[in-house]
Amino acid sequence: MGAARLLLDAERTTALRAFARAAGVSAHGLISAALLSVARARLGGDAPRVLGCLSPVDLRSRLVPPVPPTEMVAAVATHLHALPVAANPEPVALAGEITEHLRAAIARGEHFHDMRITPEVPRNPALQMATVIATNMGAVSGPRLPAGLELTDVRLVPGREHYFPQAGRSPLMACVVTFDGRLAVELPHHTACFSAEFMRAFRDDLRSALPSLSAPHELPA
Questions:
Q1: What is the pLDDT of residues 22-42, one digit of tens each?
Q2: Of 139, 148, 199, whose CA–CA distance to 173 is shortest?
Q3: What strand order describes the sheet that includes 182-189?
Q4: In order of start, what are the domains of the chain with their CATH numbers?
Q5: What is the pLDDT of residues 97-118, one digit of tens each?
Q6: Helix, strand or coil, per DSSP, at residue 127
Q7: Which member of 44, 48, 74, 76 lies 3.0 to 4.6 Å from 84 by CB, making a disulfide possible if both were Cys?
């Protein structure tokens, strides 16, 4: 196992979330669009390529009784979205497509179908084969600390040691969390699938893509 990581400061994180709101897309959609764009750039060619984005669906508010968002429990389903991605995609349009599709799929209850096949995925990874897996724990506030103690960072620990290396090349896993106002993206990977050099380069391209999305520029009409 290996892990590459990027961390935005609070100012960049605030700008990114504000840009997503102004564009009418979710922060998850914007981050997923950046991940797909970076992945597409590595495939070559000029024609669009169909890529898969696996997104989490938070079930806490959908349980009976509902679980409050402050409770960190593993109540999550997934949804796989396959979509054509151009060689040089327009990031806001791509983020909008991801956002609208995921919201509509949740409204239709499609994540329940994904839950039914989940037990079969370890035996047949092709059932849920994505190009990128974009988890998102949302915004998490830091705990109250004693005077003089400062919490500077939080890291996510992968819950398993491999990501389908038996499929040849595992999906790119991006574990996203905003802790105390700073967006972090962990990129855990199996070294049989991706080299450390590849993941560092992917991380660096993602680092460039995310701040550029929050930079001031005209939104599409």
A1: 999 999 999 999 999 999 999
A2: 199
A3: 2-7, 182-189, 172-179, 132-140, 49-58, 76-85
A4: 2-61+75-140+165-214 (3.30.559.30)
A5: 999 999 999 999 998 888 888 8
A6: helix
A7: 48
